[in-house]
Design brief:
216 residues
């Protein structure tokens, strides 16, 4: 899942601002080029959120409806002539971002997301000198931006994907790839809109069934 989706999942079971921030934190670390310390920080809510992030990803990436959506989008991109590298990346990340585009419309989820990014990050433990400062820059930008409303627009998702992939030689889309990506995301959005409720229901069930095993 993408960071907004992780905030949503955190809001289901332990909707404190610290747990919501923690659930988004691994994604934020990637976005800011930082690394979380293995020993963790001093905020137990953030730590619980980080653990939930990893449990959520482990469940999400094996859900049959999610895998089906990714295969379908991959096939659409292939038929549109998108190169293999960007096609495979967009089929994965694009589905996650399109799901976020559905979730951002829910007022409760928006409130939890804003509370999460407003949480005091001083207790987070970082691995390298300078990581806290780099994360602070990202957090300031996220707070200024507010709710990522642009995720509701597939054209804006295509722009995000271009930024995310352009520095990776094997995944970077060229102009023709980008045109195919934009077209396919616009065409595929209604399919994800309809599937989102099923994905969330199945994810809830997967996390609930996994909870007793994680507790041992």
């Amino acid at each position: 899942m993408n960071f907004f989706g992780h905030a949503v999942v955190a809001s289901w079971s332990n909707p404190t601002s610290g747990s919501v921030l923690g659930a988004m934190l691994p994604d934020f670390a990637t976005m800011s080029g930082t690394r979380l310390a293995a020993e963790g920080g001093s905020d137990p809510e953030i730590e619980r959120g980080i653990a939930l992030h990893h449990a959520t990803d482990a469940a999400f990436h094996h859900l049959p409806p999610v895998l089906a959506l990714m295969r379908e989008l991959d096939a659409k991109l292939d038929a549109a002539g998108c190169a293999r590298g960007p096609r495979r990346a967009v089929a994965h990340i694009g589905v996650e971002l399109l799901l976020d585009g559905v979730l951002v419309a829910e007022p409760t989820y928006r409130e939890h997301y804003l509370a999460g990014i407003a949480h005091d990050p001083s207790a987070i433990a970082w691995r390298e000198d300078g990581d806290a400062a780099r994360f602070a820059v990202l957090l300031s930008r996220l707070r200024a931006h507010g709710v990522p409303e642009d995720l509701a627009r597939p054209e804006a998702i295509a722009h995000r994907l271009h930024r995310m992939l352009s520095h990776r030689p094997l995944l970077a889309p060229n102009a023709a790839d980008l045109a195919a990506i934009r077209t396919c995301l616009v065409d595929y959005k209604p399919r994800v809109d309809v599937a989102a409720e099923t994905v969330l229901r199945v994810l809830r069930a997967a996390l609930t069934s996994a909870a007793p095993r994680r507790a041992h």
